């Protein structure tokens, strides 16, 4: 398999075993490990071993492998932590909170009334703006 790494990338170093991590699962294309800055118990990260900066950069075949690992880790983390649910969070670029510029998915176990805040819908949209966004986005598909 062709591998691509970025010499300055922390997650590439983890993928290569040059920096240790609490590995949960590893296969040809993906690596899953515990986040050392957890938002909840059992919070883990799932990433491709190859270096891709964002979701827009990874080839479809490898993305499929990564999302399958996300599904598997999510199921295991739910059982292991006896969680009531879990979030999958994936940040692209700094404006969205991406810190390490190597594509990764957060898998975060959630518990009833855990009080953890995920930034989602705070107001109801106006009909006009929905129409405009719809037109703009569809125009770029
Ligand atoms: Zn990398």
UniProtKB/TrEMBL annotation:
GO BP terms in the entry: nucleotide metabolic process
CDD domains on file: HINT_subgroup
UniProt xrefs under Pfam families: HIT (PF01230)
Domain of life: Archaea
PROSITE patterns recorded: HIT_1, HIT_2
Domain HIT: from-to ranges: 10-117
GO molecular function, one term: catalytic activity
Residues of the active site: 104
Motif stretch (Histidine triad motif): 102-106
Family annotation (InterPro entries): HINT, Histidine_triad_CS, Histidine_triad_HIT, HIT-like, HIT-like_sf
Protein's name according to its UniProt entry: HIT family protein
């Amino acid at each position: 398999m062709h591998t691509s790494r970025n010499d300055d990338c922390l997650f590439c170093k983890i993928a290569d075993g040059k920096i240790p991590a609490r590995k949960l699962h590893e296969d040809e294309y993906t690596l899953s490990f515990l986040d050392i800055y957890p938002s909840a118990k059992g919070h883990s990260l799932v990433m491709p071993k190859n270096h891709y900066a964002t979701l827009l950069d990874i080839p479809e075949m490898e993305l499929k492998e990564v999302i399958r690992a996300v599904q598997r880790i999510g199921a295991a983390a739910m059982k292991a932590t006896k969680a009531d649910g879990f979030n999958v969070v994936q940040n692209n670029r700094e404006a969205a909170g991406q810190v390490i510029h190597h594509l990764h998915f957060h898998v975060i176990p959630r518990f009833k009334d855990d009080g953890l805040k995920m930034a989602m819908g705070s107001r109801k949209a106006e009909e006009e703006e929905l129409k405009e966004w719809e037109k703009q986005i569809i125009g770029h598909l």
